[in-house]
Amino acid sequence: MAYGCDIDAETLLETAEKMVDFGLRDLGYKYVILDDCWQNMERGPNGSLVANTTKFPDGMKAVADKIHDMGLLFGMYSSAGMYTCAQYPASLGHETRDAQTFANWGVDYLKYDNCYNQGQEGTSKLSFDRYKTMSQALNKTGRPIHYGMCNWGKDYPWNWAQTIANSWRMSGDVYDSFDRPDDRCPCTTYDCQLPGFHCSIMNIIGKVAPIVDKGQPGAWNDMDALEVGNGGMTDDEYKVHFSMWAMIKSPLIMGTNIPKMTASTYSILANPAVIAISQDTAGTPAVRVWNRRADLDEYDQGSTSLWVMALSGGDYAIALLNAGNTDVQMNATLEEIFIDKATTAGGATKGPLPSSKGWDMYDLWVNRMDDITANSVLHGNATINGTVQDTTSNSGVVYNATEMSYADGIKKNHTALLGVMTSSVDPMGTISAMVPRHGVVLYRLRAQEEGGAMKRRDEL
């Protein structure tokens, strides 16, 4: 996304090296994914796709091997059409041959687009059959290849893609804007006949809200790549972007120029407390509990919303999202946060409701890495052999998920994953926070032990 068609082996490998050097690999960013424009304009004599020899002089397998040697995985691109979106040869009608080619090259991920599809869409069955053909071809190779469908939400893939793909794009293409409407992205709901492109962050969040429950472990709503660091949004807006992609369980795929990223970009993408909720083993996307009008900004957009995610081990994550034009004091009662528990059939008869407990609140952005530390990492002064230092201790800033999984880190109460306990809320109480314009406050909630809040006050 950051490079367009200006991509070659050198750029890919430099990106991979920096992902290792910056500690991003050890945070869980495993895939180096090539997008469009990598191939020749014609297939080879045997009908196979051929990499552009100027851009990839040693071929794709050589690139994949080097990426694998760095402990990373290699992603490839094609389209379920006659041509890719940039009008290179694509895979419709060539699925078996192309899947085997990708497997022979050592591909671990396939982004499969929707351009020039010969009109094979318009019903769920047409789209299902077209994308299923590549799914079966990939499986037949015997190589595990993550299958990322990119049909822009056409024909409601969240209703049928779970059995053939690992993720599906649920919207037209994202662009680097918080909430600016664009006629090229005409839809504001998931029920969309023209997904388009230039869809803002809030546009996509609004469209995914009714279908979050369609995501499940191994099969996710893909809200498109992260725009963090591309320059079109403020720092607070990028924090919203990253936080909500994590809360809704969209794949976290960096779409910026990694070798040239700034300290502020790095400290957002490298926040382990936020990544931990994305990677939580419960596999439960956040639900929007309420959405309210707020002060309108220059694009006549504005809302506040409460999002809640159930986490493994009994924790919860909540996001207080202010998409309004002014800073605002946002309030959420425990009854609102745990509304699903109260309204689920038999919920009140299964024991005390979560709202009847006290909860400790851990802010997931308080420990964000400062610019001095981030610049030290980016300039190679805080890494040894690609590992950001201090990741094995209980640091509140950095984490190494290669050495200790996020699940194990949470069980051990690792500070970098829990965030900072900033407050607590009494039973049946209200959480209140000042949330900046176009900003978010993100908490992990952990139930107190019996009498926990009173005990802490007595100890002071």
Number of strands: 16
Secondary-structure element order, as H and E?
Answer: HEHEHEHEEHEHHHEEEEHHEHEEHHEEEH
Widest sheet, order of strands: 1-2-3-4-5-6
- Name the helicity range: 25-40%
Helical run tally = 14
Relative strand content: 15-25%
By secondary-structure content and strand pairing, the structural class works out as alpha/beta
End-to-end span in angstroms? 52 Å
What's the pLDDT, averaged over the residues? 94
Coarse shape:
globular
Largest sheet: 6 strands, parallel
In short:
The protein has 460 residues and is an alpha/beta fold.
3D structure, described in words:
- The structure is a single chain.
- With 460 residues, this protein is an alpha/beta fold.
- The chain has helices at residues 9-21, 60-69, 95-105, 124-141, 201-208, 235-247, 263-269, 272-278, 334-337, 339-343, 371-378, 406-411, 415-418, 452-459; strands at 31-33, 73-79, 109-113, 146-149, 167-169, 220-222, 287-293, 303-310, 316-322, 328-333, 359-363, 383-384, 387-388, 420-425, 430-435, 439-447.
- The protein has a six-stranded parallel beta sheet with strand order 1-2-3-4-5-6.
- The longest helix has 18 residues, at 124-141.
- The termini are far apart.
Helices and strands in order:
Elements: H1 9-21, E1 31-33, H2 60-69, E2 73-79, H3 95-105, E3 109-113, H4 124-141, E4 146-149, E5 167-169, H5 201-208, E6 220-222, H6 235-247, H7 263-269, H8 272-278, E7 287-293, E8 303-310, E9 316-322, E10 328-333, H9 334-337, H10 339-343, E11 359-363, H11 371-378, E12 383-384, E13 387-388, H12 406-411, H13 415-418, E14 420-425, E15 430-435, E16 439-447, H14 452-459
Parallel strand pairs: 1-2, 2-3, 3-4, 4-5, 5-6
Antiparallel strand pairs: 7-8, 8-9, 9-16, 10-15, 11-14, 11-16, 12-13
